[in-house]
Write a structure and sequence with these properties.
The chain is mainly alpha-helical. Helix content is 73%, strand content 6%. The chain is built from 16 helices and three strands. Strand 1 and strand 2 form a beta hairpin. One of its GO terms (cellular component) is plasma membrane. Its main location: membrane. The chain crosses the membrane at residues 165-187, 219-237, 263-284, 372-393.
Length: 400
Amino acid sequence: MATFSYEALDRDGNRLRESGDFASPAELFVTLRQRGLSLLRYRRRLFPGLSLERGRVRRLVLAEFFRNLALLLRGGVPLMQALEDLEASPGDKALKRILTRVVADVRNGRMFSEALRAHRGIFPRIVLALVAIGEETGSLDRTLDDAGRHIERVHEIITSTKRALMYPTFVVVLMLVAFSVWIFYVLPKMLDLFQGLGLKELPAATVFLIATVDVCQRWWPVVPIFIALFAALRLAARAHPDLKFYWDAAAARTPVFGRIVKASALAFFFEYLSLLASAGIDILKSLDLMEDSVGHEELRRGIRRVREDVMAGFGLTEAFGRVTFFDPFVLRMVGVGEQTGNLPEQFLILARRYMDEVDKLVDTLSRTLEPILIVFAGIIFLLVALGLIGPIYQMVGQIK
């Protein structure tokens, strides 16, 4: 699947700018034609994750929409009227623009799931599958409510992971800024003053400071070059699956942070797998949906191998065991689920387990990082103090 930005005209001549995931430009053309739209131009986005395009809807807004729609349907409100009520209610402008098109499509006779599928760049593929199943089984209110709740839990997983990575990043950046001010502005002036006093021999700490300042002033361009290369590599990894595989594999094996990344990816995977299994979707279809939904490339390829092994006749536990990304705990829980016929509950237990692990790792990281940074800052302060105070004492001694 690729992400396309496109511009089209509706039957009234209105110009629409949207984005979505399609297998090819031909599928994009056919989908728009089914909606009664005329394609004007399109562009394949190389870096969809960096898109600043208007129309993106926040996860919590989507969750609220699905839960409110489920509540209206459960209260006996017809689907068309429920959609019109939500469209008319105040709320997120991007969602209201999409609802306007969804309402028009449903009014023209399209199924609700088909109307949502026209906006695949907004609605997750897993949610679209759940809506289609809800329509087929007559349990649309339940599947919509489940989708809303699970989107909220996925948001919690992603938020916890970002919080774990943002705190140390913020602290380190703040320390680097303070260190740069001292290295490039404060220390050079003071050290030049000491060197001009004609002292016979500077203390070792002062000599070390002078050497450090000299090295930093000579080699500081290396830092922005390294940051630029790192950013370029990250962007390239987003566009090329093979490079992204090695990037994600390396990230999952870094100390502490790697465990957070891996646990959050597994929590996301089992959270949605539980949702799909509870909705009655068979395991092969569920794995196919998850393969296109997870963002971690190493996990994505692991899911693909599990699906291929199950298709080849392996049991689900054995298929999971052939992928090194999954822990032994996963194999035990999946094995119990296969034996008891209760896989949805086992998947949910696994999702909760990895979510709890993310929370504990975030808390441990915060409590561990603070004393380490304090000690590091104290060592730097001590070296600076010794380097600055030493020449002053030496100068006072020469005066006496």
